[in-house]
Amino acid sequence: MGLRSGAKVLFPVLHIGRHGAQFRHQVSTEKEAITVMMTRRTALKSAALASAGLLISTSLTRALAQAAAPAGPYKLPDLGYGLDALEPFIDRQTMEIHHGKHHAAYVNNLNKALADYPDLQKLSAEQLVSSLDKVPEKIRTAVRNNAGGHANHSLFWKSLKKDADPLDSGPLQEALGELFGDKDTGQQMFFDKAMSVFGSGWVWLSVDKEKKLILESTPNQDSPLMSGRQPLFGLDVWEHAYYLKYQNRRADYVKAMFALVNWPFLNERFEKLTA
User: Phi first, then psi: what are they for 17, rounded to 5°?
Assistant: First the structure.
């Protein structure tokens, strides 16, 4: 049905503001109404195309990200517990990023570094960092950093548990007594060692060649394995391990971690390392 020349009509016009998009009625002439109809039709078509493009772009980005992870023998291990299992000491988002992003990156980069070295791929991350002299110089730094990161974090996740049974007796309890004297002194010494790490690194309880327990620290993703010692427990003091919850308060993070030590696991591990 046509309109009389110059007739006024109520026509819905799309308005976009800070509270979202909405149609408002506007009085228009026939000529203006036709123009608005065309503009509205074009806008809706463009919006539909943009939505489809966004969907395709998101799907493509996700697919490319999955494809970007190089195939290889090294895999990201499961945590063995939920992302929120260590709350309130370590928050869910930190665990999600620390395990799912940072640790995953070490695994992916290690697979990438060894893509052309099938013989080295047969070695575990721990074996690689224990024998870096066997790794070609052109990839040695990459293997040192990423095999170290993979090995360190794989042990770290196993060493944490909320409400774990305390360590009341056994070989590890005796070794800790020899090293520190008492619990309070031990926690203070461990705390001091953690606070003394400049920049990024780890604090370790390690077993030396004489099967004695020692306290030490390493920079970056270095491991006691590189010096012929066996790591028993390592605390990650990289900022990515705590910054979302504790910001620059490393001291608060280190103190909180005393409540998450998985003593039954460490006691069993110590017995194996000293057998």
Answer: -135, -170
Backbone angles phi, psi at 247, to 5 degrees: 55, -125
Q: What is the pLDDT of residues 201-217, one digit of tens each?
A: 999 999 999 999 999 99
Report whether 204 contacts 233 (CB < 8 A). yes
pTM: 0.76
Fold classification of 92-273 is: minor pseudopilin epsh fold (3.55.40)
What is the DSSP secondary-structure string of the chain?
A: ----TT-EEEEEEEEEETTEEEEEEEEEEHHHHHHHHHHHHHHHHHHHHHHHHHHHHHHHHHHHHHHHS---S--PPP-SS-TTTTTTTS-HHHHHHIIIIIIHHHHHHHHHHTTT-HHHHTS-HHHHHHTGGGS-HHHHHHHHHHHHHHHHHHHHHHTB-TTPPP--SSHHHHHHHHHHSSHHHHHHHHHHHHHH--SSEEEEEEE-TTS-EEEEEEETT--GGGGT-EEEEEEE-SGGGTHHHHTT-HHHHHHHHGGGB-HHHHHHHHHHHT-
Does residue 83 register a pLDDT over 50? yes
Do 232 and 270 form a contact (C-beta atoms < 8 A)?
yes
Find, among 210, 237, 218, the residue nearest to 98 by Cα: 237
Q: What are the pLDDT digits (tens) for 222-274?
A: 999 999 999 999 999 999 999 999 999 999 999 999 999 999 999 999 999 99
Q: CA–CA separation, 35 vs 41, rounded Å?
A: 10
Domain boundaries, the chain: 8-56, 92-273
* Peptide bond preceding 264 in cis form (omega within 30 of 0): no
Q: Which two tokens stand for residue 5?
A: 């020349």
The token pair at 99 is 């395990």
Hey, what are 71's tokens? 């195939």
